[in-house]
Design goal:
Number of domains: 1
Strand order of the largest sheet: 3-2-1-4-5-7-6
CATH superfamily: LmbE-like
CATH class: Alpha Beta
Strand content: 5-15%
Distance between the termini: 50 Å
CATH topology: Rossmann fold
Largest sheet: 7 strands, mixed
Helix content: 40-55%
CATH architecture: 3-Layer(aba) Sandwich
Shape: globular
Radius of gyration: 17 Å
């Protein structure tokens, strides 16, 4: 039984990006595990972290990460796959204080790469995947880049997915030929939409409505994955330039 392990930065990234491929593999009898990295709790979030929660229409009394972990379990149940949650803190809980900072250079005081790499190395060794997947980091979210850099330092056989819905706002696609180009069947699309719908707290913020999410998914024909480069591609000067572009787009 072939085992796919998808390493997701946040509680929705794998489903949003390769839900159809994962569903097809599970439907064919294969094993699928989704390991999500940044799912740790902060007892009383403040500042930008709390603002991110308010953006989703959730008050300070809501245990946001517990809610999101439950959504992830429901999403994985759609295709009958296993969810693994690592208790690492996402960027707003590590000192990133604004949306533009999430898409900029990694903070000098962000020491997450080492513990993340160690945690993922342990997971990969224990799960022994036949196929290891992770984010390409389209959109340049700092957490996505951390996962990409950690994975490419662990394995030279990881395949990187096009991050969706960031892909819909990207100026260009990767120029390299994809290693895997999974064409969505009607069953794949239905499963992908079902997984996306399970992340109820994110739908209004990301898409506007459930109907808009479904319409956006209807435009997805294929899910593409690319062979990882031999060395990490994170470069602070490139991220500073892309942050400026991101800010320009928001004006």
């Amino acid at each position: 039984m072939t085992h796919i392990v998808a390493i997701s930065p946040h509680l929705d990234d794998a489903a949003f990006s390769v839900g159809g491929l994962l569903a097809a593999h599970a439907r064919a009898g294969g094993r699928v595990t989704i390991v999500t990295c940044f799912t740790g709790n902060v007892a009383q979030p403040t500042g930008f972290a709390l603002a991110c929660q308010f953006d989703k229409g959730l008050g300070p009394e809501v245990d946001y990460m517990a809610l999101r972990r439950a959504e992830d379990v429901a999403a994985c149940a759609v295709i009958g796959t296993q969810a693994v949650h690592l208790p690492l803190l996402e960027a707003p809980h590590r000192g990133y204080a604004s949306a533009p900072e999430l898409f900029a250079a990694r903070r000098d005081d962000d020491a997450m790469l080492a513990p993340l790499t160690a945690a993922l190395a342990e997971q990969v060794a224990a799960l022994a995947p036949d196929l290891l997947l992770g984010p390409l980091a389209i959109g340049d979210h700092v957490d996505h880049w951390l996962v990409r850099d950690a994975l490419t330092s662990i394995s030279d056989a990881v395949l990187l997915w096009e991050d969706w819905p960031y892909l819909t706002r990207a100026r260009s696609r990767p120029s390299d030929a994809p290693a895997i180009e999974h064409v969505l069947s009607p069953q794949d699309r239905a499963a992908r939409i079902g997984m996306c719908a399970a992340y109820r707290s994110q739908l209004s913020f990301q898409f506007g409505s459930v109907a808009a999410m479904e319409a956006a998914n209807d435009l997805v024909v294929t899910e593409r994955l690319y062979a990882a480069p031999a060395t990490p591609s994170y470069r602070p000067e490139v991220h500073d330039q892309r942050r400026a572009e991101h800010e320009d787009q928001q004006r």
